[in-house]
Design goal:
This protein has nine helices and nine strands. The chain is of the alpha/beta class. It has a single domain (4-277), classed as Rossmann fold. The strands form two sheets. A seven-stranded parallel beta sheet has the order 3-2-1-4-6-7-9, with helices on both faces. A two-stranded parallel ribbon has the order 5-8. Strand 6 (132-137), helix 5 (150-170) and strand 7 form a beta-alpha-beta unit. It is globular. The relative contact order is 0.14.
Length: 278
């Protein structure tokens, strides 16, 4: 049987490109997405490069119990599952004082609890086969905090710690766990994928000017955003690696930023950071 992969959030961005890359490398890919009607771009691109027969679109809403149960039923009938790419997610934004607790819960339902549910569904077959790769798409935000992005940043920090635990649990069973930590890339997460809380968008918000400066900073940097295909290729390399590492930072300035945060005092780091943004 062909090697099999599941990619969540495959209707756009990293997920779409990863599904195509894995299919090109011979995997049979279950491209999971909340709304299969949004899979038309994936289908079109798969046909263009001759891998349409390698990809099957799968309806999966990681936040819905019924959808997860249907996914579990599918996985239970698989004789093998070689790779799981946990990519589904979005970026919640705004300032802490103004963000309803419900928005934090919604962020974690998708980026953390939904990811855990999908992984739990896949672990039995991987453990039984003593083989598998779980690749969690994190972010530089999983290592570095940013103002105005606390829901997203908190969810990615949680994912980082959870992935460390999972790696240590599954290593003895031959299942590898890795984190991909992209910086800023040309995907829709900072446009249609970013959900800013309503109050922080109002002119009378005490944080309004701060939010505008942050948004302008993101827009100024758009020209230097990386090619998301590079991330998809890295994920495919991890899928093929014999002994993958835990963390894979990728993107312009990402390694430098991580290194600086590790060596600078917090006061100095904070001063540099806030000087640029305020």
């Amino acid at each position: 049987m062909k090697e099999t992969a599941v990619v969540t959030g495959a209707s756009s961005g990293f997920g779409l490109l990863t599904a195509l890359e894995l299919a090109q490398q011979g995997f049979y890919v279950f491209a999971a997405m909340r709304n299969p009607e949004k899979g038309s771009e994936l289908v079109r691109k798969a046909e263009a490069i001759g891998v349409s027969e390698q990809i099957e679109i799968l309806q999966l809403d990681v936040t819905k119990e019924e959808s997860i149960d249907n996914f579990k039923g599918l996985v239970q009938h698989m004789s093998r599952l070689d790779v799981l790419v946990n990519n589904a997610g979005y970026a919640g934004a705004g300032f802490v004082e103004e963000i309803p607790l419900s928005e934090y819960r919604t962020q974690f339902e998708t980026n953390v609890f939904g990811l855990i549910a999908v992984t739990q569904a896949c672990l039995p077959v991987m453990r039984a086969n003593r083989k598998g790769k779980i690749i969690n798409v994190s972010s530089i935000s999983g290592k570095i905090g940013f103002p105005g992005l606390s829901p997203y940043v908190a969810s990615k920090h949680a994912l980082e710690g959870w992935s460390e635990c999972l790696r240590l649990e599954m290593k003895p069973f031959g299942v590898e766990v890795s984190l991909v930590e992209p910086g800023s890339f040309k995907t829709n997460i900072w446009s249609t994928g970013k959900q800013i809380t309503e109050k922080s968008l109002q002119v009378d918000s005490p944080y309004y000017s701060y939010m505008q400066k942050l948004d302008n900073e993101l827009k100024r940097g758009e020209s230097s955003y990386g090619d998301p295909t590079d991330v998809a290729k890295m994920i495919a390399e991890i899928a093929r690696a014999k002994e993958p590492s835990l963390r894979y930072p990728i993107g312009k300035g990402v390694r430098t930023s991580l290194a600086l945060k590790n060596v600078l005092s917090w006061k100095r780091w904070e001063r540099i950071f806030l000087k640029k943004l305020t």
